[in-house]
Hints:
- The chain has 188 residues and is mainly alpha-helical.
- The chain has six helices and three strands, in the order αβββααααα.
- It has helices at 5-20, 52-64, 86-109, 129-146, 150-164, 169-180; strands at 22-26, 32-34, 43-47.
- A three-stranded mixed sheet has the order 1-3-2.
- Strand 2 (32-34) and strand 3 form a beta hairpin.
- The chain is globular.
- The model has no long low-confidence stretch (mean pLDDT 90).
Amino acid sequence: MNHRLExxxxxxxxxxQDTFATRLVRxxxxxxxxxxxxxxxxxxxxxxxxFYASALHEISHWCIAGEERRxxxxxxxxxxxxGRDAVAQRDFETVEAAPQALERLFSQACGLRFHISVDxxxxxxxxxxxxxCVTVNAKAERxxxxxxxxxxxxxxxxxxxxxxxxxxRKAAIAAGRRLLEPxxxxxx
Length: 188
């Protein structure tokens, strides 16, 4: 299966550019989320180095971020790079479980192998990758049972329709956008 960056960008932008004024942008060495400003009238989910998996991961963070968080650079979070101590690594894993669970579901939807990331290559603390993997998988299963956040569900559906069912990008986007539409109000 061919995973082209152009496809994931078109799917994301097709779903969210008009509905949430947000675009997916290929970036440099580090991922970043930038809210709209005086120079750019749309929010930017910037993924690192043109990696497809980085795009899915950054989209996962965006799908979880609430309205207030999406008004702040990097959602108002402070990222601690590699080299975290045991406490910082535990905190990292606590906040990363949900986005990595969504990334796993997005990866499955498009037939891409998911790789768990403990993201602490330079740290002097021993990381229990297996335990973190169990946590991420449990969160993904919970999403499956209880439902994904709305934007995540729409994006996942678009991925499934495009990659698994062979829909054209336009049809996959239309399917995802239908999930974003408010349910009609029943008249009594």
